[in-house]
Amino acid sequence: MTIDVNCYKPSLTEAWDTFCTNAVNSTFLHTRRFLAYHGDRFTDASAVLMQADVIVGVFPAAVSPVDRSMVVSHPGITYGGIVHDGALCGAKMIEALGQLLKHYRAGGYERLRYKVVPHVYQIRPAQDDLYALFRIGAQRSRCDLSCTIELHDRAKPSERRRRGLKKALKSVLVQAGAEQVRPLWRVLTDNLARKHNAAPVHSAEEMERLVGLFPGMIELFCATIGGHVVAGVVVFKTRTAWHAQYIAASEAAYSVSALDAVFDHAIAEATVAGVRYFDFGTSNECQGTVLNENLYQYKHEYGGGGAVHEYYDVDLLGAQNVGL
């Protein structure tokens, strides 16, 4: 039975989010509830894959902000991909991707950027899309390196991290609580401005809104000295992994290794929660071509290993028709 691809429309919001709840490779970032918080920042180009009027896959996507001829899955989230419940395997995934390409080609687009869901966010192996991308001649355009801890088979933290934790625990208290957005954002904003002449992607108001939209799924772990927040991390909780979305520390926090205590607390909580991974996020610059080696080494010293975030580009006008 042929897979049909339709443009997403608001009337499908509930069905989309319900489907994501039961998918094998989705997180709350794929939901319309999360995507909608971007407002009109992006021109939505999401698609729904149907078979006999039943949803078999969803594809969050938007038009590239810098190239109107390209669709990206999705420019507002870390990863996109074809979200499915496991049924789109083997030849079915090849068909699904082929139909998706035809859909966007018919819409006048020339390129598709496909951001793969890293395996650490899949509840069971679901990399059929990588094989399908190979079959249609997609080119890997970017690869970022993340550092991820396998919580039930964790490498031993380095001596430097153990010393840092011992030092931190003498000076700071660590507590979890989503209400700490404002004080942590003051630290984060100052940190980014001082070190990189940059600002957070999310404002404090936006992060507070996200916390309200996803209670229990976005958590803050903060270190305090004398009752004042000096360091912390924002954690996005998914079914298989907890992801450190933002990491911030003041000069005072660095002097006492406060982040060692923050991460020790967060990693311990993730282990108790029963998830498989704690993901520190990527350490890349310049579209993945430059690795911040000091940052990656710092994360690696907590007992992690490498996991990649891959991007693939498809020329919609010249994509191969093998198996389609």
Automatic annotation (TrEMBL):
MF GO annotations: transferase activity
Please provide the record's keywords in A-Z order. Answer: Transferase
**Does the record's keyword annotation contain 4Fe-4S?**
no
Q: Which residues form the BioF2-like acetyltransferase domain?
A: 162-285
| Source organism superkingdom | Bacteria
* Pfam families xrefs: Acetyltransf_6
Q: Gene3D superfamilies under this entry?
A: 3.40.630.30
Q: Which InterPro entries match?
A: Acyl_CoA_acyltransferase (IPR016181), BioF2-like_GNAT_dom (IPR038740)
What protein name is recorded for this chain?
GNAT family N-acetyltransferase
Organism whose genome encodes this protein? Paraburkholderia madseniana
